[in-house]
Amino acid sequence: MSAPVLNPVALPAATLISEAASLSADRYVVIGNPIAHSKSPDIHARFALETAQSIDYARMLAPLDGFEEAVQEFVRQGGKGANVTVPFKLAAYAMATRLTARAEAAGAVNTLAFSDGEILGDNTDGIGLVTDILRNAGTPIAGKRVLLLGAGGAARGALLPLLQSRPVQLVLANRTVAKAQELAAQFAQKFPKENTIVPCGFANVDGPFDLIINATSASLAAEVPPIPVSVFGARTLAYDMMYGKQATVFMQFASAHGANVRDGLGMLVEQAAEAFFVWRGVRPSTAEVYAALRAQL
Ligand code: ATR
Q1: Atom of ligand 1 nearest to the CA of 151
Q2: Ligand 1 contact via 214 beta carbon (within 6 Å)
Q3: 46 to each of 11, 71, 84, 122, 235, how far by Cα in Å?
Q4: Omega within 30 of 0 (cis) for the link into 226
Q5: What pLDDT shows up at residue 195?
Q6: Which residues span the domain enclosing 14?
Q7: What is the mean pLDDT of residues 117-129?
Q8: 3-state DSSP call for residue 54?
Q9: Is residue 151 domain-shared with residue 246, that is, in the same domain?
């Protein structure tokens, strides 16, 4: 008996067209665990449409102990790049064969690019933050006093792009003061030319500041880092890296003390735009994508 033969004429035309398109399109994924909530496929599909780039971007759930294998398999299948999210940013850093300076500084990777056997590890979170502040919020950083709250992964990722924007001072305040001191010391060793970080505890922060960035995870627990209200002035921008339908408790607190506020949705869109640029060499515009995501919250 001969094997059954699939008659292509029997397939609906739409199937043939979409299969042909996805065969020719470069493939990208966002990898995490969990991953179902990720907005990245929506964002990148919108960027691709807007820039007329043919890409196929999907979610990939990797087992907690199987990140590297999942990436290697995707590379074997011809994948061109990946965004990496919780909890794999350190694993992505470890498996990169080459790192950008900003990934090196962040100690974590959120963007991988695969070519010719090389795994490039980049980090676009910090530049996403800075772009959102400079371009979208229209708030300058050069010559300004900046207060960064937190000394975990999110704060570390922001340090180099913030310093490269030349603030007059960057105060790094954390609940556990020793962690802020350690991060500042590590940074001074790796980037001696960039070092203007002043580490301290929340109670010792001496305001006012032009820009305050909440990079702690306190908003997740509906808590506000216990900073003195003297940090806020009438022209302060208080930025929370978290975002949601409502203003975070940090934003409410800052607003109540006279500051302008902004959440981290723009950072999410801008870090994606930078990753898109790393992969495709084309910079998408972000305003419409930002508005669409805001409307969906
Ligand atoms: P992420 O990758 O999001 O930065 P992380 O590395 O676990 O997460 O770091 C969390 C940061 O939020 C830390 O700076 C933490 O302070 P400690 O170093 O003292 O733990 C800070 N943080 C978490 N909850 C907080 C709270 N309720 N008030 C103030 N800071 C808080």
Answers
A1: 14
A2: no
A3: 28, 24, 19, 22, 34
A4: no
A5: 64
A6: 8-123
A7: 98
A8: coil
A9: yes
Q: What is the CATH number of the domain that holds 239?
A: 3.40.50.720
Q: Does 220 or 81 have the greater pLDDT score?
A: 81
Whether pLDDT at 3 is above 50: no
Ligand 1 lined by 201 (C-beta under 6 Å):
no
Q: Provide mean pLDDT across the span 232-254.
A: 96
Q: How far is the CA of 219 from the centre of ligand 1 (A)?
A: 10
Overall number of domains in the chain? 2
Query: Both 259 and 130 in a single domain?
Result: yes
pLDDT in tens, 82-114: 999 999 999 999 999 999 999 999 999 999 999
Is residue 276 situated within a structural domain? no
CB distance 218 to ligand 1 below 6 Å: yes
The mean-pLDDT minimum among 149-158, 161-170, 190-199 falls in: 190-199
What average pLDDT does the segment 148-164 reach? 96
Angstrom distance (rounded) from CA 125 to CA 103: 9
Pairing of strands 81-84, 111-115: antiparallel
Phi, psi of 8 (to 5 degrees): -60, -30
In a domain, 50, yes or no: yes
- 212: its two tokens: 């305050």
- Residue 144 a catalytic site member: no
Instruction: Please state the separation of Cα 174 from the chain's center in Å.
Output: 21
Q: What atom in ligand 1 is closest to the CA of residue 175?
A: 19
CB atoms within 10 A of CB 23: 8
Pair 130, 105 in one domain: no
Alpha helices in the chain (DSSP H): 13-24, 40-51, 67-76, 89-95, 101-106, 125-131, 153-164, 177-190, 249-256, 265-280, 287-296
Convert the pLDDT of each residue in 28-75 to its tens digit: 999 999 999 999 999 999 999 999 999 999 999 999 999 999 999 999
pLDDT digits 0-9 by tens, 201-214: 999 999 899 999 99
